[in-house]
Amino acid sequence: MAASNDNKSLALYEFKKQVEALKKFRGRGTELVSVYMTPGYPISDITGKLKEEYGQASNIKSASTKKNVQAALDKIMQYLKTFKTTPDMGMAVFAGNVSEVEGRPDVELYSVIPPVPIVTQFYRCESMFVLEPLNELINTTDTYGLVVMDGKEATIAALVGKQIKVIKQIHSTAHSKTHKGGQCLHEKTLVQMADGTIKEIRDVKPGESVLSYNFKKQMIEPAECTNVYARTAPHALRIRTRSPTTELIATNEHRFFCETETGTEEKLACELKKGDLLLLTSKLRITSINPPLTMPRVEAVVSEAGRLILKKVRTTRGLTQQTVAESLGCEQMSISNLETGKRQSIQKLGELVSFYGLPEEFYENVSVRGANLPTNLTPELAQLLGYLIGDGTTERNRITLYEDRLEVANYYREILTENLGVNTSLRERRRSTGFGERYIETRAYSLALTEYLRTNFPEATAKGLARSIPARIMSAPDEIASAFLRGIFDAEGNVSVRGIGLSMINERLVRQIALMLQRFGIVTSVLHKKTRYKPQYTIVFRGRNELEAFKVQIGLTSTEKNAKLERLLEANTSKSQANHAPINGKFTAKLVKNKGLNAIVRARFQPFLSGTRLLGRNYLLELASTLPEENKEMLNQYAESDATIARIESIENAPAEGINFYDLEIPGNENFIAQGIIAHNSSQRYGRLREEGIEYYQKRIGEAMDSFLTYKNMKGVIVGGPGPAKEDFLKEKTYNYQLKILGMVDTSYTDEYGLREVIDKGSDLMKEHEAVVEKQLVDRFIKEVVTNGLATYGYRQVKKTLESGQAERLLLAEDLYLYENKLVCANCNNEKTLMSDEDNDEEECECGGKLKTKESNNLADELQKIAETAGIPIDRVSIETAEGSTFKGTFGGIGAFLRYK
Fold it and tell me: Residue 626 sits in which domain range?
């Protein structure tokens, strides 16, 4: 039967003792059996299932384990015969060999009927008894959220049962003196702009739009940069992550977003430590454009037959070249060039043809150079640019591409001839370094083409380390960006058992490519390799999701590389090694706790829920699918987020002398993307220091309150504190909409004393809560004792009132250790009785021998039995509360209310 209200605390205390006692048992192998039965489940069905398990146990290879498992199952089935129906609260039965001596089995059976209903039904055979479902029942008590705050500090806690668990203490900097721009990033840090371009932070201008992370939607979106701050700094830190690998350099005071066991938290760079989970981007969404390109001057060359026609018309009319030039408003040299077969602007030729009144057919005598160049970016042009940046050169009137595979060389030659209309040559050459390997050199001769490339894509035609991805490419639609990436991976990419990689000495270019790949959901690591000659930077990715995305959305030209990619996909079962769901496993464990997660699912996800491993998005969706419908939304949102996380691999000092550090002001989301890391824009507060400082403070309190959602039976939140800060906070509603605010109370403090004030003054808001009931009980007891009223304390006095029937109610502290020990001397048989907090005393005897404990009587259990026999209600007082601690420390943990004096 369920415990009555009078004995509820006692029943829960006894239940806890039973569970604690079962924790000590360990089996030799998987031979400890645990059986859980829900209320009302037919005993016969349970017995039938256990008989099946008994038969299955015959397959166990170890003879001793098989014998012990079958003995345990047999003992449970015999025990169940004593029940007609399952108890009202259900039942858990445990049996197995608990002997500590090998070879001497001791199969024992234990049963537990909890004070609240069991909700899980299963059979398990492991090396220890499965007690997790019972532990969860211990925590089924109602829970309340407590917040005490003023304008400068706040304490957030949960009242779980009788225990106050402090979640977080927050201090506001809204009224502090701060230095504008004090928290900055290295001047060469790459920032992702909203239009797709990637700029060094020193080149970002106020009014420009950057990409920012919306924490509420968990999506990347555009945000305006309203200000840029620059400063020097005496110290800086290089922060490097792994899986995925990236790094940036920041001043000690710059803030970063970390995923912790309480959710997303902000940390200063100097507070970060190895193993912290830093928030990064995984998917970039840009606003693309493809504006017209600047076209080079289109030139015409007139054939010999055409030149004769031009001269004949002019001389027949009696005109000189100078006269014609003056009529057209040009130089005489332009007319001379056309008549002598030299290149001249097509526009001038057109004006001359009109002036002479020549028919349209005249143009059959004219060849045009540069007319096939596209007026807008095309995939073919973008792919050529990618290859040119990777392994090509540009000279005055030609471009040269270098390639090992004839198939690939022919492909790019076709782009040059068929799509761009330029003359090309292909020849085989030998390298002057190494072993003189053969390679293929493709040359394209066209002054118009080189001018076209230099005008529209100066970043691609630059020399050496000055090269970068052209701004027009970065801003272009995905179709163009994909083709560009295909070109650069054709030139410099490789496919091996380690995944797809690309290595260059140009760090900026490599990091730009890594960010550009995120437009296609491909998260990469950027590694720094110290080689013999020059440092190298390498992009690498090998997760199945990333490889498939690359194959489908980008691809490679080489048949050989594609075959390697197919083999890599066949061998790779890991979904993603770098694109994890952006949530801490321990925080997830709190979210799913008490949400009906069965033991099998919990065991499957245990490495993640314990924080040992990071979880892929597909697995998080799988975990979410096992939860009730109302609990899926938050996990699904994390699984579909545009962010990911990476562990910090190292933090080391970085050079700061002679370097400028920059920060951006991004109102709203308060962050921007810096080399793939979601970086806090620490300077945004300085413009509206007090106002935004308060907003930030309230937001942090709201974020800390998110932890309340992880508690089962959360009834609501009570907010307290001195002054108007609490009213302002509730008005702004920066907390999760799912939280119910029960009320508000005035307190004098904002620390743990303030929390106790909230419990005291908010008692009407949580009348039935254990902690409130217990506080009222102990307060009443103390008042009765102090006023010499109807209460007494101490073992002897309380025992006397229990035996006489004078006691109305017994109060005993939890974990009360009080024993009456009978000591005997082995030399002289002298006896002595004393009270102790241990059950095994020893002291010197007058004869010189030792008085040792022969018998021990637990006095707390004795008082409890007397009260139970007399039908007197019993309350177990927790020592985790201030009142309970006072009760045990001042009154010895034993007291009673009296019916009369």
Answer: 585-639
